[in-house]
Amino acid sequence: MNDFYPALQLYARHSLTVDAPHILNIEEYGNPAGFPVLVVHGGPGAASDAHQARVFDPHAYRIILYDQRGCGRSIPHGELEGNTTQALVSDMEAIRNFLNIDRWILMGGSWGSTLSLIYAETYPERVAGLILRGIFLCRQQDIDWFYQHGADLFYPDYWQDFVRPIPTQEQNDLVAAYYRILTGDDEIARMSAAKAWATWEGRLATLELNEMLVAQFNDPFRALALARVECHYFRHAAFLRPDQILADAHRLRTIPGVIVHGRYDMVCPVDNAWQLHCAWPQADLRLISCAGHSLVEPAIRDAVIGATKGMRLRVS
Question: Are residues 177 and 212 in the same domain?
Answer without folding.
Answer: yes
